[in-house]
């Protein structure tokens, strides 16, 4: 009696998570590359005429509504892309060293970026108020809104991510040995240039300083896009 054993076939399927992870990390990398470009463009298009006072600020926004809308829109979306891109940053960490630190910093800075993105809506309101009521009344209304505890908290969050966000992300990634420590030089130089350059070349100085300050995002974004 002969026994015939039917051949067995093994079907191997590629894990579904791999391409999805690559797509998400690449999208996050692109977002981080786009973010500082939009931020610099938003800085370059800030309406002129601000004299450091609340009344002067509101008046400058009201004087050129189209420029106010352009600048505020660019700034808003720069922080949106920043917030989304940061959530992909932990994917750069290969080992266990620094993974928790990178994740905490990325989520915290993403949260701050969300806070400041929403605060940009105030530019449209300031513009409308400045065109609807006298300058002193417009300044009073604007100050009442911006000194509220909620908006003050949002503004503080925005200042935190604006001045320290890039440096904190680089420090966490460098500790995890995912990027080089030399990238920390860019936020330091950029912040210094944003103090000096605007006095010399106006908004163009703000734009240049922004690109330098958030320069590490180009490197981090490129690493996310090229990661396999």
From TrEMBL:
Residue ranges crossing the lipid bilayer per the database entry: 23-46, 66-89, 101-121, 154-174, 181-200, 206-225
Keyword Transmembrane listed: yes
Coiled coil: none
Highest rank taxon of the organism: Bacteria
Keyword Plastid applies: no
Entry keywords, A to Z: Membrane, Transmembrane, Transmembrane helix
Descriptive protein name: DUF4386 family protein
Organism from which the protein derives: Actinomycetospora aurantiaca
């Amino acid at each position: 009696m002969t026994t015939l054993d039917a051949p067995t076939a093994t079907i191997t399927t590629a894990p579904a998570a791999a391409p999805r992870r690559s797509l998400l990390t690449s999208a996050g990398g692109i977002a981080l590359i786009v973010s500082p470009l939009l931020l610099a463009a938003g800085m370059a298009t800030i309406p002129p005429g601000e004299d450091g006072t609340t009344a002067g600020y509101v008046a400058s926004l009201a004087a050129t509504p189209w420029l106010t809308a352009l600048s505020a829109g660019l700034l808003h979306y720069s922080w949106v892309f920043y917030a989304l891109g940061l959530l992909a940053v932990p994917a750069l960490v290969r080992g266990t060293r620094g993974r928790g630190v990178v994740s905490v910093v990325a989520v915290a800075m993403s949260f701050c970026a969300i806070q400041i993105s929403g605060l940009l809506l105030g530019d449209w309101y300031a513009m409308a108020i400045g065109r609807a009521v006298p300058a002193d009344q417009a300044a009073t209304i604007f100050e009442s809104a911006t000194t509220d505890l909620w908006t003050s908290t949002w503004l503080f969050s925005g200042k935190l991510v604006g001045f320290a966000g890039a440096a904190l992300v680089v420090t966490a990634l460098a500790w995890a040995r995912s990027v080089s420590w030399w990238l920390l030089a860019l936020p330091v130089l950029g912040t210094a240039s944003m103090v000096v350059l605007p006095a010399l070349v106006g908004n163009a100085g703000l734009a240049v300083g922004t690109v330098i300050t958030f320069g590490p995002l180009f490197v981090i974004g490129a690493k996310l896009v090229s990661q396999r």
